[in-house]
Amino acid sequence: MRTFTLALLALVGVVAAEAQIKTIHYKKLQECLPTKVFKGFEREKPEGRTQSSMGMSTSEASVEYSQPIKEDLKEGEEPPPQVRMSVKIQDMVGMPYALMMFSGMQEFESESDDGYEKTVIVLEKYRGIEKGRTSDDKSMTTSFGVANRFLVEVEIRHSNDAALLKEVLGSIDLAKLEKLPDAK
């Protein structure tokens, strides 16, 4: 019984210590977002927010890219779907076990007529998941954890250009993200 009580107190102490860590303000997360303007895309103004409620806080930053809509369409011609990209960084410190799925993830791969989902190693360092839709509504998404604290997600809609996805992933300042205060 004494061992159980000590273990419970230790667990409460770990949870309390985790609760004391403050969320990184969204402005700091925005500094890690890509600043690059990709060929054929326009970069929109980054967005973000930091919220606190009942002792818990969350923070996220994101930026969107879009291809300009073609203006030289013939009469009655439908414009092609506008390719859009987004990069999102979330501070998951308020949910300390949310990123555990990436650390102990078993390799898997699933493919169907509509798309695929598989584990990947992002930039030769971060374990993550890549999903792609190959149907008419093409898209690609890569999600991965950084410093056992941040969730990074890159999504490309209306395209399945793997080279573009890799270029966007390489433009995120992950080294800076890893070094943010209190990052583990």
What does this structure look like?
With 184 residues, this protein is of the alpha+beta class. The protein has a single domain (23-179), classed as Protein Transport Mog1p, Chain A, CATH 3.40.1000. It is built from 5 helices and 9 strands; from the N terminus they run ααββββαβββββαα. Residues 4-19 have low confidence and may be disordered.
Task: Just name the CATH architecture.
Answer: 3-Layer(aba) Sandwich
What share of the residues lie within helices? 10-25%
Shape: globular
Ends apart, CA distance between termini: 33 Å
Helical run tally: 5
Radius of gyration of CA atoms, rounded to a whole number: 20 Å
Main sheet, how many strands, which sense, barrel? 9 strands, antiparallel
The CATH topology is given as Protein Transport Mog1p, Chain A
SSE topology string: HHEEEEHEEEEEHH
Key descriptive features of the protein:
184 residues; single chain; nine-stranded antiparallel β-sheet; 23% helix; Protein Transport Mog1p, Chain A; globular; alpha+beta
